Amino acid sequence: MVIAFICLLIIPSLILSAAECSQVNSDIMSDSTVGTDPLKPLRLLKEKKYAELEALLGNLQDAYKKDFTKEKIYEDTLDAFTSQNSEHEKYFNDWVSKRPDSPFSFLARAIYFLLAGDTRRGDKWASDTTEENFQGMRDYYDKAISDVKQVMLKDPNIIKSYTVLIHIARADGRFSDEFKKEQLDKALKINPYSYSVRAAYIASIEPQWGGSIEKMQAAIEEAKPFYSKNQRLKSLEGRIETNRGYQSFYYDKDKNAALDHFEKAVAYNTTNDTNCWLFQKRGDLLDSVKKEYKSAMESYDRAINACPFYLVSRIRRSALSYRFYDYEKALKDAEIVIEMDPSQSEPYFIRGRVYFKKGEYEKALEDMQKAIAIKPKSKRYQDGLQLLLEEMDKNTKKNKTEEERVKPKEDILQ
């Protein structure tokens, strides 16, 4: 009863059972919501357990307001809504429809629309991106902005709202540098120790987004007075070397120089892993260039620790885990990606290979066929499917021979 009272005291508009409140408060106290069950927020969403979901998010926000070191667990939980699965949109819409007074229903959908906009744009250079793709991006961004406005009307102190707007302004030329700085300043009035909003702003003024190293350095300097109370902020200094590595990799086509810059950037991440892109790209180079597979795995682990839903890191780690016979780890990462973005072919192929190794041939066949349906020209997928079919054929013949061997012979006396 006491736990239920605490839960209802924090969010009095919610009606939860004592057991539900106990679970919510247990999650907050353990700081393990994402680590133990990354897809929990999405599962609650799909099960339409909106009261429990809002209690979870409300408690996390309350804990963060009281202690800014709780920012990461709060951000990681919200990032579960960065789903790229188009089937999930109907669940977000239903949540908003059923709970129109909740800031969290609109915030979750805004996060979903933000990633939908990113996905619609694609990952090509601007010069290679079609106007159709840009318009699709803007359409989703406009939906995200509309939802963020609703969040701010209901609770203007949710910092994630401002990071969403900064992210949009980074990629959308309709917004100025002044707009980005305005969102940063508003967020820092709420919490000057926030890592997430400062990181979002610095990412938005990188050279490839029309900014400069000088602007990045100035933003980092502004954060330095707050290091003493939040050591996580010091890792922002690594953003300069990370960007230099980006330039070396994409513009200079010099992988070794890129890796050197990435290693320097990693040196700033001594207390917390904060930059998932850095650790993922570093892991790729340690794997493909240096052939340092153990170090590559550790780098992917750190990327996922930084951003549990940075799916490319999950895919890379799943593939490397499979290569080194850690099938359960490979399977877990593949399944998270499949839930979050079923348009990716590689997780189906990896999961299919794991099922193949386990002798679950029908499951393996289904997954390999899904991978090929997404990427029909992949010779690697075709070869994998052929090996599976050959093994299934051998197994069928073996079973048939065994059946013949144990089949009772006809009694010649009858």
Which features characterize this protein?
single chain; 414 residues; mainly alpha; disordered N terminus
Question: What would you note in describing this structure?
Answer:
The chain is mostly helical and 414 residues long. The protein has 22 helices and no strands. It has helices at 2-10, 18-30, 33-36, 40-46, 50-66, 71-78, 89-98, 103-121, 131-154, 160-171, 177-190, 195-204, 213-223, 238-250, 255-266, 276-288, 293-306, 311-323, 327-340, 346-358, 361-374, 379-406. Helix 1 packs across helix 2, helix 8 runs antiparallel to helix 9 (131-154) and helix 12 packs antiparallel against helix 13. The radius of gyration is 24 Å and the shape is globular.
What is the tally of helical segments?
A: 22
Uncertain parts: 1-33, 409-414
* Structural class category: mainly alpha
| Overall helicity | over 70%
**String of helices and strands:** HHHHHHHHHHHHHHHHHHHHHH
The average pLDDT score comes to 90
Q: How much is the radius of gyration in Å?
A: 24 Å
Strand content: under 5%
The major sheet is characterized as: none
Intertermini distance: 77 Å
- Please state the overall shape, judged from the principal axes of the Cα atoms: globular
Number of strands: 0
The quaternary state of the protein chains shown equals single chain
